Amino acid sequence: MANRVPIREGAFMESPAGGILLANKCKSCGEVFFPKAVFCLSCFNEDMEDLRLSRKGKLYSYTIGLMASMHFEPPYAIGYVVLPEGVRIFAPLEIVESKPFRIDMEMEVIIDKLWQEDDNEVIGYKFKPV
User: Engineering a disulfide at 71: which of 77, 80, 115, 128 sits with its beta carbon 3.0 to 4.6 angstroms away?
Assistant: First the structure.
């Protein structure tokens, strides 16, 4: 059995309800950061609070890859999803034949295998159409 290795420690967690992205928010100006920032990149305040991002957002932009990449076989999709907290997340998108992508469609975060490296299953966050 393969080891499940996160693509980035502390960026997400799995729960019975599904995937959750972990961010932080500046206590001074309210700016939200994903992935988490050590200090606020807007006002340089170091007082940050942890924040769990919403599981659903809107598709902002996307593209379909038709050439193989280091980890993905074509066709694959990547894009930006805007969450209610105001962050725009760049991530792989799950292609669902019955739900073609369109700008502003509702998307939901999932935690899934991204690729295999030797005996390690690299897991991370993706978005899929709702």
Answer: 115
| Radius of gyration over every alpha carbon of the chain, rounded to an integer in angstroms | 16
Residue 70 corresponds to which tokens in the numbers above? 């280091």
Cross-strand bridge partners of residue 116: 121
Output the pTM of the full model.
0.92
Q: Compute the distance between CA of residue 4 and CA of residue 63 in angstroms, rounded to an integer.
A: 28
User: In terms of residues, how long is the chain?
Assistant: 130
Written as six digits, the tokens of 82 are 């805007």
Distance (Å, rounded) from C-alpha 84 to C-alpha 60?
12
**Cα separation of 19 and 69, whole Å?**
25
User: Residues 36-63: pLDDT tens digits?
Assistant: 999 999 999 999 999 999 999 999 999 9
Positive or negative: CA dihedral 74, 5, 26, 86: positive
Quote the distance between the C-alpha of residue 28 and its chain's center: 25
Tokens 């066709």, residue located: 75
